[in-house]
Amino acid sequence: MLIGGDFNMVPWSGALRRIMRASGTARPGPVRPTLRAGYPTPLRLPIAIDHVLGGRDGATAVALRPRLGSDHRGGLARLPAGTDPRALP
Description:
alpha+beta, two-stranded antiparallel sheet, 1 helix, 11% helix, globular
């Protein structure tokens, strides 16, 4: 399973933990900021609100991509060798 997107939830969010627990997924790597610094947040710090979550057969790593026309950085999920993305639920 592979779940990804703009969750608008910080990594320590209880709601994000519930999603991960219910779906059997986890974050495949370290937490890195995806929303630029200076965005109107209370602390004006770069924060991670976009996530890629993978299950046993899902993502093994996520690489951040440049901001292209957005205030968010994209994420590129790497799947295990031989995985057919069309077969993922």
